[in-house]
Amino acid sequence: MSLLGGLLFVVSALVVRGSSISTIEENYLKFPAGFLIGTATAAYQIEGAWNVSDKSENVWDRFTHEPRPGRIVNNDTGDVACDSYHKYKKDVELLREIGFDVYRLSLSWSRILPNGFANKISQDGLDYYKKVLAELEANGIEPLVTLYHWDHPQIIEDLGGWTNEEIVDYFGDYARVVFRELGPRVKYFCTINEPEEFCARGYGLGTKAPGKEIHGIGEYLCSHNVLKAHARAYHIYDKEFRPTQNGTIGIVLSLSYAYPKDPDDATSVETHFQFNAGWFCHPIFSASGDYPSLMKEKIASASLEQGYPRSRLPEFSQEWIEYIRGSSDFLGVNHYTSTLVEPGVESVVPSVFADRKIILSPDPSWPRANSSWLYVVPKGFGDLLRLLAKEYNNPVMYVTENGVSAAEETNDLNRIQYFHDYLKEMLLAMNRDGVNVKGYLAWSLLDNFEWTQGYSERFGLVHVDFNDPERKRTLKMSANWWKNVLKTRKLEPVPAGPQSSCCTAIPV
Ligand code: GBH
């Protein structure tokens, strides 16, 4: 080869390599055909209309109405919230305007079954959801329906709620009514949203509804019955409805990623993973089923040290292990943030938090959002998705929630930056590393009732004016960014401009 030829060869090889790399990268940042993009809400957080028609009181109605100063910021309630019970047509119009493929909503159990039990079905309650589903269908938006997002009927709670094993039957009965009445219009069902959250905080720390402080015992009874109730709903769907309705059904978990404070401390990372993801994933998605052995051992040894005659974590019979194992067509991943971990004991003893014997903290370099717990760590999202794929044989996953709180503003460039950086990590995990994510839902369509934070934290793509009796809705800049993503079906750049409160480092 002549010198010139050699040079040309080298140059052209570089050009080819260069362009092929950038095309590969560009391809990585596209959403594959058939990928579902949507946004999510939950009944208690948006509907309002807490006592219309024959709807009965649920645990969040009770929790917010009980006069306990300090429980909820500003003593806010979900009595009116975004008034989506009356404004659902406007909500669907917003979904269509932004261009989303799917909408994840949840159903209010006490609106459908005012007695809690299946002996009485509310026609008005059913009609409301039928109207919402019809409106979605008319606008070409696919519904993803969550049966339970934290708001069970108060009467069920009076019987012990998630600590009473009877709830397995009650929840199954409720699920059957929903599948029969609404299932013909629904292809995607989620059973239960974030059990670790309402178990640990509703029955452990008592900071969320139903506000029971029975830590160390309550959260484990709750999780035990949640796993059984989830599996019951799954099997009812699978046997009685799937043959005609042909849909898919799974559980939704709140999953975070942990990095070790000391780079050599793999043990704390593994402990965090098993207590955070493994608690519910191992019984459902692992080959062997049941709680992770690490979790069983840690809780048993802490219980014995504390003088309990047996582990505070209940045991499943072999029949239940088999009944629960494999009871999900997909894993619903709610992901917001990551944490650092190190060995140590949390203050609330006994509790699921103390049993782990690790302490969580943010890295000081991580920017913080408008929620005290939400640090912006995009890389943790990719790392989490790869880890879940590796541990559970690459299950079908839907990211059922991901989003960020920011100041009350409509030029929410910081939120766009968050979505951009998190989506990039997800797309690389999928398109480069083969992780099986089939859909993504941004939290949330609307600013809404943010549980104990009331209306003080805003996660919406759409601003809601809570001082306006009409609850006026205004698209934020992030909603317009999503419009472009939905048009091009690829990751769009972040517009230039100053970013505010969220996503600038706040010292901790
Ligand atoms: C989701 O949970 C919920 O499913 C959704 O309803 C909610 O609106 C959304 O998050 C945004 O918060 O301050 O110590 O009490 C996310 C998982 C993990 C959020 C723990 C709140 C509270 C920690 N969550 N967290 S603390």
From TrEMBL:
GO terms for molecular function: beta-glucosidase activity. Belongs to the glycosyl hydrolase 1 family. Keywords: Glycoprotein, Glycosidase, Hydrolase, Signal. This is beta-glucosidase. It comes from Cephus cinctus. Coiled coil: none annotated. The keyword S-adenosyl-L-methionine does not apply. InterPro entries: GH, Glyco_hydro_1, Glyco_hydro_1_AS. PANTHER family: GLYCOSYL HYDROLASE, LP05116P. SUPFAM superfamilies: (Trans)glycosidases (SSF51445). Its EC number is 3.2.1.21.
